[in-house]
Amino acid sequence: MRYALRRLAFFVGTLWACVTLNFVLPRLMPGNPALALLAKFHGRIGGQALKALEIAFGVHTHESYLHQYIDYLRNTAEGNLGTSLSQLPTPVSQIISNALPWTLGLVGVTTVLAFVLGTGIGIIGAWRRGSWLDNVLPPVFVITSAIPFFWIGMLLIVAFSLHAPHLPSNGTFDSTIIPAFNWPFIVNLLQHALLPSAAILITSIGLWILTMRNNMVTVLSEDYIKMARAKGLPGRRIMFDYAARNAILPNLSGLAMSLGFVLGGSVLVEYVFNYPGLGFWLVQAVEGEDYPLMQALFLLITLAVLVAVLLADILTALLDPRTRTAR
Amino acid sequence: MSSALADDTGRAAVTGEPILQVTDITVEYATKQGNVRAVDHVSFDLGRGEFVGIVGESGCGKSTLLFAIAQLLAPPAGLAGGNVVFKGVSMVGLTDSQLASVRWKDMSVVMQSAMNALNPVTSIGAQFKDAMRAHGVRSKTEIADRSAHMLRMVGIDPTHLRSYPHQLSGGMRQRAMIAMALLFTPDLVIMDEPTSALDVVAQRSLMVQIKELQAQLGFSVIFVTHDMSLVRHFSDRLMVMYAGQVAELGVTSQVFGSPLHPYTRGLMDAFPSIKGERVPLTGIPGHPPDLARIPDGCLFAPRCPKVMTECETTRPPLYLVDGTQVRCLLYADGSTR
Amino acid sequence: MASTELSAGLGPTITPSAGQPHAQSGAPPSRAREAATKTGQAFLRLFRTLRSNRKASAGFILLAFVCVLAAVPGLIAHDPPRAEIYGRSLGPSASHLFGTTVYGQDIFAQFIWGARETLIIAVVSGLLSTALSVVMGVAAAYLGGVWDGGLNLVTDTLLVIPSFPLLLIIAAYLPNSGVVVLIAILVITGYSYGARQLRAQALSLRGRDYLEAARVRGERSVYIIAVEIIPTMTPLIVATFLGTAVYNVLFAAGLQFIGFGNPASVSWGTMLYWAQNNEALSIGQYLWALMPGLGIAILGASFALLNYAFDEIGNPALRPVRRHRVKRPR
């Protein structure tokens, strides 16, 4: 119980740190960048939006930092994330809610796939120690995991988009098709998602494979595996109940944090493929100096990682009795 | 090697048909520098209800020998020769699934540290259960009853079936492991230093418990340890190993009473008696040979107080002296060859 | 590795771990020299073990390749990388091995010259990040108490926050800033993982007996840390550097790809920026985009291979294994 509370406190604490970072950074930078920004947009936004912006960046206000901070916290908590400066007059929350499903679909599904496949391959690779699979896997995937996500994307574009089979490399679906819940549309969606998905899969799967395999190898040299063999237990049972269950444990929270890395890499994949998810908009916001949008996206992405970490912790507590009784 | 000799001695010392016949077992480790021989042509027989102790210093190959017998070797270790016949069936070369029917039901294993030998994420009861289910016991009540019964036999309250390994004390964990090993009342229990992780008091009580269980259930024991005093009081026969070879093998009281091999004698001298007169503590100078580069001649020669010139060039075979096997050129004459 | 000495009787003997100092005889040498010698010895040991590892050799070769490019670019590429004097968007030919950009620059020259800045960014940020990790990690472990808690909180929070988005945010507030700022933000966002690992190891070393002995001798904490703890941690420190270097290569490239750092400079990341901006792929100038990416991949892969070789050395169970064949007895 106490463990869960501590983790929850850390969760909330990190979120708070992000919001505070969002608040503090622009004020720290030489020559408050927001000032220049507001000069640029003066007259184009009014009323509430302008007020929110001023609160967020502490411009034209004679209130103390503390006061500004509290107002900002309140705004964020209420979901009042401001207006996007690059997509005037659309509110930030709308852009986010439009982008979220695309990222969940692309990055979410692909990451789950990469994780399941990668972990499975890692388990099998470790189980078959000394086979060609086990000797070839590590070097190959060490290399693939060090390759930039977006470069793989470019390679895929050159190979499969500019040449046969001419898979689409731009956007989520053809502009000529009307979105509807029918088969042609879904196929079109999948076609557009194929290359970006492959880019993410190829680069991130190596990470899961290697960490799982390494953990499995360490676990397989433990005495309780020998004991399980001595008991005459069937091989598959040993592999899953004894080896994999123990191997996955030290890694669950590490895996959750790797999600942060994958999310980071997918930002550029979305950019290269013009796939309008959270990452794509983040780059747009950064290039367009759209601070409200940028801050909100940063917060959201961090939230996603934190949720993953929290889930991983809960899972660890469920699977590992030692954490439950300790402390 | 005089392996024929070993067989004869083995069977002669055993009442009735031996349940285990180990013949010329040789284990090698594959390393970058070539194969290293960790166990070199070890042979012995084991009778029903017999307790055989195997002693030697760290790295002499005794644990490797145990795993070779139990067919639990894993790469880079591999069986390079020899045979293990258990209850008339040759075990070498069988796959895990072929061995499954024999494992645990007829031969079980107890390891050194229960904390490492028990799955840390499942309860004791679950581990008992999966051993039983792997051998066809399906009924929940039977599983529960037998588990509880075995725990009670080793003096543990059956409520601990629900506990996890880290929740038990060291002594309790070892006893739980022994209980698990006896689930099917096997004919042979192989023990690899089961008491080394315990304090002296717990060690004694565990040994006494093992002997009681042996008397009750009638299983044979192969017991590996580095603790001479422990093995002296509890074993019928004793095997002393050095650098992967059998140095001496015979009835325990005889080996202790009149040790033949200079190594054995050195070991005895290192454990002074409490009741005897005070003698300066002597050890055996030097250290065991690097198994990747074994010398010619007797492996113990560099450290032997009784070394002779021929010891450095001739590998001594096993000689039989008054029913004890000994690998030493001192007995080359005046013994049955 | 330690040998099993048998001095008297049987039984487990105390095995000294690698890196433990031998008894000191005579006048103690100067602290700095002692620290340097010990660290030097640790490095030598590492180097020897790495030589026999195939992955490490491969990693070294790749890294050496990039280093050569960075050291003597002029010897390999004869054209100036930035001069916009050639025909525009030319395909690969004998005079322009990789073709030219839309601005008329020779891509091959850019590729060769670009190695230098990319390598420098990776190495410098890696070194600084590792140094910061060492300081933060060891300080937290050694000071303990409130300091430990505080430093840890900062480190753990930075660890959880996804690095690339954070990098983007910080970089967004600093447009048109140069390589120095790029390195600075890479270091700040990247030190946390290493700090955590080093702290863990420093903590475990703290309790060891030979450190107690040093304390009893009256040595000051700084001495203990510098001469006893840090040399022992050399393998982990090197591993941290290698791991951080991989990420720094990727993140620096990512940032430059979007236009941070100095787009006017010649590095593989900025090449990618200009290629993407000018839709190099759509106009058929594949090499413009693919070659710098390949360079980055090579550099990243070299660090990753070396890092992995390190893991294998530290954990022998991970090393490649040969299947030992079982001979059936007749």
What does this structure look like?
The complex is a heterotrimer of chains A (327), B (337) and C (330). Chain A is mainly alpha-helical and 327 residues long. Chain A contains 14 helices and no strands. Chain A is 76% helix and 0% strand. In chain A, helix 7 packs across helix 8 and helix 8 crosses helix 10. The relative contact order of chain A is 0.13. Chain B is an alpha/beta fold and 337 residues long. Chain B has eleven helices and twelve strands. Chain B has an eight-stranded mixed beta sheet, sandwiched between helices. In chain B, strand 11 and strand 12 form a beta hairpin. Chain B is globular and about 65 Å long. By secondary structure, chain C is an all-alpha fold. Chain C has a single domain, classed as MetI-like fold (Orthogonal Bundle). In chain C, helix 6 packs antiparallel against helix 7 and helix 11 runs antiparallel to helix 12. Chains A and C meet through helix 1, helix 6, helix 7, helix 8 and helix 11 of A and helix 5, helix 6, helix 10 and helix 12 of C.
Return Rg of chain C in Å.
Answer: 25 Å
> For the terminal residues of chain C, how far apart are their CA atoms?
39 Å
Q: Which spans of chain A have pLDDT < 50 for at least 5 consecutive residues?
A: none
CATH superfamily of chain C: MetI-like
Task: Produce the secondary structure layout.
The complex is a heterotrimer of chains A (about 325), B (about 325) and C (about 325).
Chain A: H1 2-28, H2 33-41, H3 47-57, H4 65-77, H5 92-127, H6 132-144, H7 149-161, H8 183-220, H9 223-230, H10 235-248, H11 252-272, H12 278-287, H13 291-319, H14 321-325
Chain B: H1 3-13, E1 20-31, E2 34-46, E3 51-55, H2 62-69, E4 77-86, E5 89-90, H3 96-99, E6 107-110, H4 114-117, H5 124-134, H6 140-153, H7 170-181, E7 188-192, H8 200-217, E8 220-225, H9 228-234, E9 237-242, E10 245-251, H10 252-257, H11 262-270, E11 319-321, E12 324-326
Parallel strand pairs in B: 3-8, 3-9, 6-7, 7-8
Antiparallel strand pairs in B: 1-2, 1-4, 4-5, 9-10, 10-12, 11-12
Helix pairs in contact in B: 6-7, 7-8
Chain C: H1 31-51, H2 54-71, H3 73-76, H4 107-143, H5 145-160, H6 163-172, H7 179-206, H8 209-216, H9 221-232, H10 234-258, H11 268-277, H12 286-314
Helix pairs in contact in C: 1-9, 2-4, 2-12, 4-5, 4-7, 4-10, 4-12, 5-7, 6-7, 7-10, 10-11, 10-12, 11-12
